[in-house]
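Why does residue order matter? Because the sequence determines the fold. Keep that principle in mind as you read this record.
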Amino acid sequence: MAAATTPPHGPLSGVRVLELAGIGPGPFAAMLLADLGADVVRVDRPGGPGLGIDPAQDLTNRGKRSVVVDLKDPDGPARVRDLAERADILVEGYRPGVAERLGVGPGDCHARNPALVYGRMTGWGQRGPLAQRAGHDIGYVAVTGALGLIGDPDRPPPAPANLLGDYAGGSLYLVVGVLAALQHARATGTGQVVDAAIVDGTAHLTAMIHGMLAAGAWQDRRGANLLDGGCPFYGTYETADGRHIAVGALEQRFYDEFMTLLGLPDLAPARQDPARWGELREAVAARFRTRTRDEWTAVFEGSDACVAPVLSLREAPRHPHLAARGTFTDHGGTPQPAPAPRFSATPTAVRGGPALPGADTAAVARDWDVPRLTDQQPRTHKRKATP
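Structure:
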């Protein structure tokens, strides 16, 4: 049986979002909107998006509802336009021009709903020499200079998962953009297109570093600066058990406490002389290798030395601070990050598990008053009752 209408919850309660299914930053942006209380309807394609995991485990689709529409069917685009007419925000992540060819581009949708905020999520953006080229997170962050900031200067830059480009430079900027445009639409009755390019957002994230570079306070190379591992009191170290500790003792008073608890107070003056940073780094590294990660965590417990254990994904939910705050939650038996940020008057929560393709067609057709959705629908997944 399809899920009932999601109860009001969160500051975006009452906002309708239409998501044209894709992978990566588009779904994550729509998940964030759902976390904040929006009614997000995902338009899945027959056969799914090809992510390669069970849809029931795809947490980027939590809290959403799903319908299945084949945009290559003669009636498919009309069904999507019916939904767009009743939406506040639309999110799509096709290559430039694809939505237009399918009949669900901004012109088609604005003809039915002039106030619609049409959010476009791409890597390269809607225009430019690379706009039509394929790409992934690592390439987008590479050309912005952000990837070149990361890693050991004697090794190639590491791949930062897809957190820096897809989600930080992409999803979060799309969400900021569509919410700003929604504010404008509600004030004026006029929607617009939001062109969220991962290269733009990721470049924007480096604003502070560009300022430091212009001021002569940053060298344009890896491992030579205050925040990129260049100094020995801001970085990571291996412990006796092969795990790691993170150190961020930048300010003098925090550094002094760090060196005292580490057991190297006599070497503390080396901070003031970059020529001695190599010596300082070797001593700190040797000291950390004398105990396990958890032993060092206990040493620095309760201090302002700015030292933290480097935890794995499975360990993180058990960290005492994160557990106390409820930073992670368990929904339907799956541990996962809780919605963020937090609101005093309109609290958020994980309101439902991942949307199963097509499981909510009847409910969405009723709630959004789009009867055409139930005509000749393809086979769908059956949604299990939420525990």
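Confidence is low (pLDDT under 50) at residues 1-6.
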